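A further point concerns the way the authors explain their paired sequence and structure data. The central task, working out the structure tokens from the amino acid sequence alone, is never made concrete. I therefore recommend that a typical entry be quoted early in the introduction. An entry of this sort, consisting of the sequence and the corresponding backbone structure tokens, reads as follows:
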Amino acid sequence: MGQVICIDGPAASGKSTVSRAVAKKLGILYVDSGALYRIMTWQALEHGVDCSDAAAVAAFCETVNVVFEVRGERVAYLIDGEEPGDRIRTPEINAHVSPVSAVPAVRARVTAWLREMPQLGDLIVEGRDIGSVVYPDSPYRIYLDCDADERSRRRLAEDIGKGFQVNQEQVKASLLNRDRIDSSRATAPLKKADGALVIDTTNLTIEQVVDAIAKVFRP
């Protein structure tokens, strides 16, 4: 079984960018746990499931099948033989992913998937409860924090790059709402794991954050 670097933090704190760069630097596999919750949300919407109905979401999540495949330096997720790509990264998905992620049955299913992945080798896994719930015994637990204005600026740039018509106030409101839901949910809330290394990325370059994480990993 491989070792796991756990990267937690709020939306747009730099988790994905940093984790991919660490994976490349260390030669380990990148795992995006948030994409699994986005896939659940996307599939629920595609099948007409009311994402605010926890019971309906819980029943539906058992029908979602994801195939995991190592592709280069990452673990890819396939639905019906193909990756969903940006279909899981739209403003509509952003608006619905938190209530779906808060459903205990969804979290249990995704957590079970994630706990199987160290069979593939050493991993860097990013999300919101990776160090606190999924791999609480990992010696490599890191929490990335960032100022809300900077996070909204980063997410706005991403959304505009994808052609979405949004402004920074809309993006910031969405991020803060997601922070509120993720931090207050009863099951596996977003929080700093006990003993986690906290890195504030607001005024740091990607390279600085990557170097700080790479220094603590001892395979």
Q: What stands out?
A: The first strand starts at residue 4 and ends at 8. The CA atoms of residues 52 and 99 lie 6 Å apart. The first helix runs from residue 15 to 26.
